[in-house]
Amino acid sequence: MPAVRRSSRGKTSSGPVSSTPAVRSRAPRKAAGSTGNRKKAAKPAQTAATSDLPSTSSLLKNSRQTTDEWLKSARTKKGYGNYVKGGKKWLVEWTAEGRLDDEISEDAFDNEVLPPQKASRSAFKDYFEQVCGCQGDFWKYNSHIQKWEGNPVFESGFKTYYESLKNRHNRTSTATQALPMLPADLKVIMDYLDSPEAIKYFTVTQSLYFKAFVTTAFTLWTRNDELVSLQFKDIKLNLHSKTGIPYHEFSLIFRKTNKDPTKVQKYMVQIDLAHPEIDYYTHVEAWKAHMERLLGRPLARRDYVFPALASTGQIKFGEPTSRSAFETLLDEVVDKSNVLQGRNGKFTTHCFRRGGAQYRFLWADRKWSLKAVKWWGGWSSNENVGTLMRYLLDELMAYEEGFSDIMMDDRVIDRHETFMGEDEMVPVSKADLSKFEESILAKIQGLIASATTSSGSTSMNTPVRLPEDRVHTPTSSVEHPPATPSPPSLRPDDPTPPSQYIPRPSRIPETKTLDDALAYWEHGAPQKGLDVPLKDWAALFKSSEYTSEAVKLGNIQFVCDEFRVHCNGDFTTFEERFPGLRRKFTALMKAVRAARKLRGETKCRSSHK
């Protein structure tokens, strides 16, 4: 009987059964079986890939590690640890004395000032949160589960007592927040450092160092740690703008809000001779020249702008100064200069940043916008405006004078006490200039008319021709006595032209050669801050105005007189009398002094025994 089989296409066929078809019919089943085996073999690989993903416990561990590493700085964590350790020690001693059941008296805390109490509270708050798992800004008893919940530092009695301590501290203690150091304060300090009294306590190196440091911090609003590590590779000195204005360029990278080394803020600061107490340009240049003179070589890019100072006042080249070292110098200068006399507060290294920001925002003739203040100070663009305004305006009334006499006519008006600064110091407008011009032309017209009437050449009724938009019609025909035309005198209510620049004696630059001395004496050196030639100082200034420069002025004058009078202004004669000393000013001074002594032009000082 023929075998019947069904093909894979569902058709029935008949024919003898052979071994070959049987083998072929099993082949697809093997193939199907092998495919299934491959699918089953793929499952372990997928399971292995899934096992490579981090577990929940490892993620929590990593998050705790990140929090522990970055939430608080190492310095803060170390301080917190010391406070907790001290608190535990105090509690052990209290328990050992058998006083655990006693009420803790206020004397246990009143002996401390507020900052340690505040830090201790923060330390224990962090300790209870991180170690004991006490979460929340409350502390209460849950009667349902019969357990305390929250953080113990928020216990109501302690919280009230802590607020009372803060109130007592704010009302009775000296302010610890840095007062802003404004230009008026810097002027007091600069005048003191230039006085003979300061020489008793501070060397020339310390004085120049301090002037350069504080003017830089005030101008750039730098924090202390941003300035102590500054190197000369970060600054470019003696540059000139397209219009020829000299300036220095500073590059600051690692500011508090920026840790990206590719983001650099550049600051261009020009010379400011009108405000020498904040003229960072001049003071930094003088400090650099002083260091190069002591070092005996030009400063390299790796050299620190403000290296460390030894206790003897000597410079430690190659070693940056520290925060504590400058704070010590600052405290000493502030104390000796009496700049804080009669004021409640203190100056810290942050006073320059705060004072510089307030000066540019509130007091400078050209005030800056809040946007410019945020950029220059390196504040984040996301900084809260309210926080920044409190920084700029806080304690403003503490050093601002009162207004009890603001309605008095004899009060000297300050532009900051009027709404738009409308006082006589406001820049003259175009309308003001037009009124001034009309007033002057009217006076000239009256004088010319009176002069011509007296000579009979013209009539009083003949007007002087003026431009149509400048004709002034007299309101009366009062005759004036004959007079020679002269510049009219202005009435008190007439606007006055802007005051001219009044020069002041400046610091005499370093004199290295005879050529330097002659240039300073005859022409000055505006590029070095010496605007007025030295030969004119005696006629323009009082001797008390340049006391600190009197010795250098006298030395230069004697050398110049020797060259002009005794050498007839001839360099050949000079070389014959003082060979090889043209470029050695110190040796030249000694030689000139000896020559004057031989001629009997010097007076010997009487020795005091």
TrEMBL record:
Biased composition (Polar residues): 10-22, 52-64
InterPro entries, A to Z: DNA_brk_join_enz (IPR011010), Integrase-like_cat_sf (IPR013762), Integrase_catalytic (IPR002104)
Annotated PROSITE patterns: TYR_RECOMBINASE (PS51898)
Domain Tyr recombinase: 176-408
Regions annotated as coiled coil: none
Any single biological process term in GO: DNA recombination
Keyword Secreted belongs to the record: no
A single MF term (Gene Ontology): DNA binding
Alphabetized UniProt keyword annotations: DNA recombination
Protein's UniProt keywords contain RNA-binding: no
Compositional bias ranges of the Pro residues kind: 482-500
Name the record gives this protein: Tyr recombinase domain-containing protein
Disordered, as annotated region: 1-64, 453-508
